[in-house]
C-alpha cells in the first residue's frame, strides 16, 4: 500500500523527464542570478582598465574622424582646382 499515491500526491508527481527539465530550469536560474550579480558589480564600479580602454578608443575614433574630414576636404579642393582648370581651358 506504500506504493500507491493519494490524489493530492498524484497531481504533484512528475515524470523523470519533467523532473529533469525542472532541475535544468533551477540550474539556469542559479546561473542567471550569478550573472546578474557579476554584472551589477561591474556596473557599479567600472575598472580602471575599462576606462583606459575607452579613452584609447575615443582617441582613435577622433583621429579617424579628423583624417576623414581631411580626406574629404582634399577631394573637394582637388575637384575645385580641376573644375577651375577646365573652365579656363
From TrEMBL:
<dbReference type="GO" id="GO:0008608">
    <property type="term" value="P:attachment of spindle microtubules to kinetochore"/>
</dbReference>
<keyword id="KW-0131">Cell cycle</keyword>
<dbReference type="GO" id="GO:0005874">
    <property type="term" value="C:microtubule"/>
</dbReference>
<keyword id="KW-0158">Chromosome</keyword>
<keyword id="KW-0206">Cytoskeleton</keyword>
<dbReference type="GO" id="GO:0042729">
    <property type="term" value="C:DASH complex"/>
</dbReference>
<keyword id="KW-0995">Kinetochore</keyword>
<keyword id="KW-0132">Cell division</keyword>
<keyword id="KW-0137">Centromere</keyword>
<keyword id="KW-0498">Mitosis</keyword>
<dbReference type="GO" id="GO:0051301">
    <property type="term" value="P:cell division"/>
</dbReference>
<dbReference type="InterPro" id="IPR013965">
    <property type="entry name" value="DASH_Dad3"/>
</dbReference>
<keyword id="KW-0159">Chromosome partition</keyword>
<dbReference type="GO" id="GO:0072686">
    <property type="term" value="C:mitotic spindle"/>
</dbReference>
<keyword id="KW-0493">Microtubule</keyword>
<dbReference type="Pfam" id="PF08656">
    <property type="entry name" value="DASH_Dad3"/>
</dbReference>
<dbReference type="GO" id="GO:0051010">
    <property type="term" value="F:microtubule plus-end binding"/>
</dbReference>
<keyword id="KW-0539">Nucleus</keyword>
<protein>
    <recommendedName>
        <fullName>DASH complex subunit DAD3</fullName>
    </recommendedName>
</protein>
<comment type="similarity">
    <text>Belongs to the DASH complex DAD3 family.</text>
</comment>
<keyword id="KW-0963">Cytoplasm</keyword>
Amino acid at each position: 500500500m506504500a506504493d500507491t499515491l493519494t490524489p493530492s500526491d498524484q497531481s504533484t508527481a512528475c515524470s523523470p523527464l519533467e523532473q529533469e527539465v525542472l532541475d535544468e530550469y533551477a540550474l539556469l536560474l542559479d546561473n542567471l542570478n550569478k550573472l546578474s550579480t557579476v554584472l551589477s558589480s561591474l556596473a557599479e564600479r567600472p575598472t580602471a582598465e575599462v576606462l583606459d580602454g575607452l579613452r584609447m578608443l575615443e582617441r582613435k575614433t577622433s583621429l579617424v574622424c579628423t583624417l576623414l574630414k581631411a580626406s574629404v576636404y582634399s577631394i573637394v579642393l582637388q575637384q575645385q582646382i580641376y573644375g577651375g582648370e577646365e573652365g579656363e581651358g
